[in-house]
Design a protein that fits this description.
By secondary structure, the protein is mainly α. The protein has seven helices and no strands. The longest helix is centred in the N-terminal third of the chain and has 18 residues.
């Protein structure tokens, strides 16, 4: 069975595909192009960028963002420890609201990463 966060990602993808086929295709296309450029390897590795995205998603309390960036971080070789450290940087900067969403990070580790 697909996990909760995987379902969120699938729903987000379906929404983008639907919008990308209609009169908002230009918006979605521009977002995809910008997003692709921003995620490219550069001064920061793709793994580092995914971990930054995860931390920002946690501070914004965005389940889809946490899932998306956690999955990306694991795909680029991040460990559960790296994901949790990035999450605690978000908690450091955002405080209680980020801390209250750490359960989503734990679910992301279970669904996308290694088990420890």
């Amino acid at each position: 069975m697909t996990g909760e966060l995987k379902r969120l990602l699938e729903e987000m993808q379906r929404t983008k595909e639907k919008l990308g086929e209609g009169k908002y295709a230009e918006y979605i296309g521009a977002w995809r192009e910008f997003s692709g450029v921003a995620r490219q390897e550069g001064a920061l590795s793709q793994k580092q960028k995914a971990l930054i995205g995860l931390a920002i998603g946690l501070s914004k309390q965005c389940a889809q963002c946490i899932a998306y960036h956690a999955e990306a971080a694991f795909s680029f070789g991040a460990t559960a420890d790296e994901v949790l450290e990035a999450a605690f940087v978000a908690v450091l900067m955002d405080g209680g609201p980020a801390q209250s969403h750490l359960g989503l990070v734990m679910k992301a580790i279970e669904e996308f990463g290694e088990s420890e």
